[in-house]
Amino acid sequence: MKPLVLVTGGAGFIGSHVVELLLERGYRVRVYDKLVDQVHGGQGPRYVPNEAEFVHGDMRDAARLDRALDGVDAVIHNAAEVGVGQSMYEITKYVDANTGGTATLLELLIGRRAQIGKFVVASSMSIYGEGAYLCDQHGDVHPRLRSAAQLEQGHWATVCPTCASPLRCMPTPEEKPLFPTSIYAISKMDQELMSLIIGEAYGIPVVALRYFNCYGRRQALSNPYTGVGAIFSARLMNGNPPVVFEDGHQRRDFVHVTDIARANLLALESERTGGVAVNVGTGRPSSILDVAHIIARNLAVDITPEVLDQYRVGDIRDCYADISKARELLAYEPTVSFEEGMADLVAWLAEQSADDRVGPARAELEQRGLTRAGRHGGPATASTKAP
Ligand code: UD1
Q1: pLDDT, tens only, 173-219
Q2: Ligand 1 geometric centre to CA of 214 (Å)
């Protein structure tokens, strides 16, 4: 009989794709998910296939989680609260759910270590802070967050910490020092480090997957704290222009959710791999303006993005993945290009109705001083358009 895999967060955006792939490959799957309202809108487990067993539960409910671990051969841990901005004021919620939830799971896994062949934990590129950069004079450099003084001047580019000259963004390897810049990122770093340390101490093979910017079908469109792809799509579908922070030339590594799901399968199945953290991205950077334009083009709408010269506190400028370790250890190769993936996201969107709840979410960030105007931007509140 094929192994039984417990997928925490298996009803969510990434988790549900992992579940589907596991079932396709003949695994038996049990989903453990809290069905957070902000993501699921009280609608129940819409994306959990009938062939998977579903357990409704909170990661901190040790008794329930322990029962869900009965008979399980491997665990894929994707359950987490995921709003970066929201984590900066709902601190307890993020620390409890992400750090506390993982702590609860790890304590249970210690007692069940003989049973667990592999533990795969979802980490995040957010733990790097800024990506890796190259200075013509000083070689590899690891700048910290840009200062408020710099951003208030509307100077967006990251500069060399030694000579202040402009930098070239490079692929970020796993060895780059970690500088998490939000409570969410700290909680993800906790999840990764705690899992690796407990795995090492108790002989449980652990693989932490550092997801870059994931997008695709089932992205929580009405969750205002979701990634930029879903936010821009919801704006455009409701006839509103996407609101672009900074100048829109900041870059990320957009990785399709099916590639992330496959990385989970490879991590689960790779027999020699344990005690490692691995980037899961595409190795290709795209700008935020590219995202706005490609979604607008695919939706066939002619709406110009609003570039307001405002910035979000704690945002990095650029980060994209060096995926050589994933290639080497997991034989991982991204298969969905940015163009194909965004076209597929839009095709799915056409069947959805997405509330545009971005306005209220931005208002919350503004009230707390977490979005600010750069030199050319007006006061954040004055230039906000109602959704
Ligand atoms: C963050 C996390 C990442 C997480 C992701 C989605 C960091 C460094 N990374 O990524 O782990 O997976 O959130 O939860 O914290 N933008 C706009 N307009 C908008 C929204 C966003 O211009 O309406 C810009 C942002 O300023 C940023 C870029 O788009 O420069 C990407 O934002 P987002 O999708 O939230 O992801 P990250 O901040 O990169």
Answers
A1: 999 999 999 999 999 999 999 999 999 999 999 999 999 999 999 98
A2: 10
